[in-house]
Amino acid sequence: GAVVSQHPSRVICKSGTSVKIECRSLDFQATTMFWYRQFPKQSLMLMATSNEGSKATYEQGVEKDKFLINHASLTLSTLTVTSAHPEDSSFYICSAFGGRNYGYTFGSGTRLTVV
Amino acid sequence: SQQGEEDPQALSIQEGENATMNCSYKTSINNLQWYRQNSGRGLVHLILIRSNEREKHSGRLRVTLDTSKKSSSLLITASRAADTASYFCATAAGGGADGLTFGKGTHLIIQP
Question: In the structure, how many helices (H) and strands (E) does chain A have?
Fold first, then answer.
């Protein structure tokens, strides 16, 4: 079946630093990847849609300069949280869309803690 | 925008009983999906039902969809302790390359 690998699974960083999260589709090509954020005991909220070779589309209220998304290949998308602050602490999950055959496959998530 | 409201928000039942979760949504959809999330983990896709389908089965799962009421239900029969998790419905407006809109989720606890 389709597998999406997301790294790191956990990261603790100091306030003001940047953190990069990687999302890879291992056995299929994903023209579109999605990034979600989930606060404790809440649902997933779509942050942005990432298309290979083009700029990401951000949802309303999500700062594109703070959450940099790069989708350089059909199997890799990265999310960089720049100048992280404690309020950015959250669970970030990526999803890759592999067409009708593979549908949506989710990564295992990254727990970001900013101290 | 957030749409999709599950109820109940939390459900605790005895092992072996059936668990029913409901989901409502607000806009037109192409399909509706149900996912399971174990604590602190990623999402596992359970089942997808298309807008032109009314019911679908997969093992111990049964999903219904009522597009006139913009609602869906997930039934887990003969529940097991391993079914303890949060369950989310998610809708897709388009044919595939749109992000999913998730409901608030139902936290299911199966008591052994």
Answer: 1, 11
